[in-house]
Design a protein that fits this description.
The complex is a heterodimer of chains A (about 325) and B (about 325). Chain A has about 325 residues and is an all-alpha fold. Chain A is about 80% helix and about 0% strand. Chain A starts with a helix and ends with a helix. Chain B starts with a helix and ends in a 9-residue tail after the last helix. Chain B is built from 13 helices and no strands. In chain B, about 70% of the residues lie in helices and about 0% in strands. The chains are: A mainly alpha (about 325), B mainly alpha (about 325). Chains A and B meet through helix 1, helix 6, helix 7, helix 10 and helix 11 of A and helix 6, helix 7, helix 11 and helix 13 of B.
């Protein structure tokens, strides 16, 4: 197992390095970061522009810029200066990650519980009315633009409820700061969580259903039934445990996607998480923030891929011993 | 009782059509793969309904726009009709300038165009990518697949936004970007199929007959991945349409003065209370497109890949 882990970690490193090169090229393709300065009226003197270029290393070649950036990140933990302002890029990115992480953690919990429940029920009662209804609802959520649903929930759920009760139960804008009391935190987190959770739920409940059906039709479940075990025991102890193995890996893979997929949801509820950070940095062509953001995103994807692989090994003995 | 009834009607129809009666007990019409798939598809009720709705949507977007006398970019609505709720004259209502049905038609058209581009370019590029990778194996395979993995490490919305930012929001650029983002997914799936196909006898036979690599890839391997390709294309289209609207929503998609369903929703998000029709219609149309495509995909999977469906159960 240890050899397996070490080998997987070692394989991930070149992928991460290649990923930083690719993201560097993509970020460079988004345009000149000093556009804001060069289009300013009246045009600032060339010395000012030159000074900025020197500060941001823009007067060097791309490989030199890349090397400067990556060596600073690795050796000095210095993620480079932002184009605008004097913030520390690294702390900015990690602060945003914390905000988004809270959102994703809550919605994954909701999505998983709902998905397993409905997935199992619709698999057990295949082709029943419940099955058709949950399948249809799942498809609708799968086909719904996240932001449309988010706006709908915000306007009709949150704001209407607040107006009706005269309270601020649901905070429809702003992320929670870390020292609010639990009630306030819930009000902040609830609506965005529902939005993001239902998107994950739609895919995962379909997956649970398919995986559960496969297991329910397998020989060993038939054996368990035929030797007279209670239906409940067969379902929970024999079928569900096996059916959830593939779900854990799919989940692990999707969590990384959700972290960045929260871009749209955060935008609706005006959270200053990963989505806000990326969109503003893209608009300002603030390349060091973009690079840092993409580095964190790629690392998370690779990390969760790794976790998915390892989880599979832990949960399924056939993989581990192979 | 039922059986006799069946045979009677059968006899009658055969007599009516005047077909020669050959050994009746074993006459089973030969059905090819696609014919059987068609029958299976027709049995999936939701998919068939979705197909009809989807065709109606295509007609609505492309033909409707020519028939409807309000245009998406040329206002000409009467002054007293501004910001009106839906009526016979303006079925989807109006905003302060335009007839909303014309706007929604235009948006639907844009979404469908993007969908077709993803289906064509994304699936096409991904198919070639996957076939080449799976067929040659070795260094070429690991190189191509690592590159796919690499693209998959970047969140699709971020990648699409960054790539589309320089483009200036032309429709074809966004289509190409979304196709590029979705190609690696296709490549992975196709490679998997090709890996198992290339060990089969018919490929060996083709090689023994002296077929070139290119011929084997494009005449023998690629056609056999069609079912997988079609099913994957529908999934990509549904995801791509939603990605396009999300891109419009965050401001890196299609730019005004042109419009799209995503943009319509963005412009209407402050008006959910006062002029809800501006918000609901574009949203409903996005859902309709994505939902029908998803259901058609589900039906196609049942039809083309019977291994994982109710046919066996």
């Amino acid at each position: 197992m240890l050899v397996f882990v070490i080998r997987r970690v070692l394989i991930s490193i070149p992928v991460l390095v290649a990923s930083t090169i690719l993201t560097f090229i993509i970020v460079k393709m988004t345009g000149d970061p000093l556009t804001y300065l060069k289009t300013r009226q009246p045009i600032p003197p060339p010395s000012v522009i030159h000074q900025q270029e020197q500060r941001l290393w823009l007067d060097r070649s791309w490989p030199a810029q890349y090397w400067h950036w990556i060596s600073n990140v690795v050796l000095h933990n210095d993620w480079g200066p932002p184009v605008l302002g004097h913030d520390n890029v690294r702390t900015d990115v990690f602060h945003a990650l914390a905000v988004t992480g809270r959102l994703v953690a809550c919605s994954v919990a909701i999505a998983l519980i709902l998905a397993v429940l409905t997935g199992v029920i619709s698999a057990v009662k295949q082709y029943s009315m419940t099955d058709y209804t949950t399948t249809f609802i799942g498809f609708v959520f799968l086909s719904m633009p996240t932001f449309w649903f988010a706006i709908l929930l915000k306007e009709w759920g949150g704001i209407k409820f607040n107006e009706a009760t005269g309270t601020h139960t649901f905070s429809t804008i702003d992320e929670p700061s870390s020292w609010v009391n639990p009630g306030q935190l819930l009000g902040h987190v609830l609506l965005p969580t529902i939005v993001l959770g239902l998107v994950g739920y739609a895919a995962w409940s379909r997956f649970t259903r398919a995986s559960m059906l496969e297991v329910l039709n397998s020989d060993y479940v038939r054996l368990a039934r035929s030797k007279g075990l209670k239906p409940h025991t067969v379902l929970v102890k024999h079928a569900l445990r096996t059916a959830l193995i593939p779900l854990t890996t799919v989940c692990a893979l999707d969590i990384a996607a959700l972290l960045s997929g929260a871009i749209v949801t955060e935008n609706v509820f005006q959270w200053r998480g990963m989505g806000y950070l990326f969109l503003t940095s893209l608009r300002n062509r603030d390349f060091n923030i973009m690079l840092g953001w993409l580095l964190v995103a790629a690392t998370l994807v690779i990390l969760f891929n790794l976790i998915a692989d390892l989880l599979y090994g832990v949960l399924d003995p056939r993989i581990r011993h192979a | 009782m039922l059986e006799t009834h069946d045979t009677v009607t059968e006899e009658r129809t055969e007599a009516e059509t005047g077909k020669p009666q050959v050994e009746r007990e074993f006459t089973v019409k030969e059905r090819g793969y696609w014919r059987m798939a068609g029958r299976r598809f027709l049995r999936h009720r939701a998919a068939v309904i979705s197909l009809v709705v989807f065709i109606l949507l295509v007609l609505f977007a492309f033909v409707g726009q020519r028939l409807w006398h309000y245009k998406w970019n040329g206002g000409f609505i009467d002054a007293q009709d501004i910001n009106e709720a839906p009526s016979l004259k303006h079925p989807f209502g109006t905003d302060d300038k335009y007839d909303q049905m014309a706007e929604v038609m235009r948006g639907t058209q844009q979404s469908l165009k993007v969908a077709f581009m993803i289906a064509f370019f994304g699936t096409g590029a991904g198919a070639i990518w996957g076939v080449v990778s799976g067929f040659f194996g070795g260094v070429a395979d690991s190189g191509l697949m690592r590159f796919a993995d690499l693209i998959l490490t970047i969140p699709p919305l971020a990648l699409a936004a960054a790539l589309a930012y320089q483009g200036g929001g032309k429709l074809w650029q966004i289509g190409i970007v979304l196709a590029a983002v979705s190609a690696p997914y296709v490549a992975r799936v196709v490679r998997g199929v090709v890996l198992s196909l290339r060990e089969r006898e018919f490929i060996e036979a083709a090689r023994a007959l002296g077929a070139t690599n290119v011929r084997i890839m494009f005449r023998h391997l690629l056609p056999n991945t069609t079912p997988v390709l079609i099913v994957n294309a529908t999934l990509l289209i549904a995801a791509g349409i939603l990605l396009e609207t999300a891109l419009s929503y965050v401001g890196f998609g299609i730019q005004p003065p042109d419009t799209s369903l995503g943009l319509l929703i963005v412009n209407a998000q402050g008006a959910v209370d006062t002029r809800p029709w501006l918000f609901y219609f574009p949203g409903i149309f996005i859902i309709l497109i994505a939902l029908t495509v998803n259901f058609i995909g589900d039906g196609l999977r049942d039809a083309l890949d019977p291994r994982q469906t109710r046919e066996r159960r």
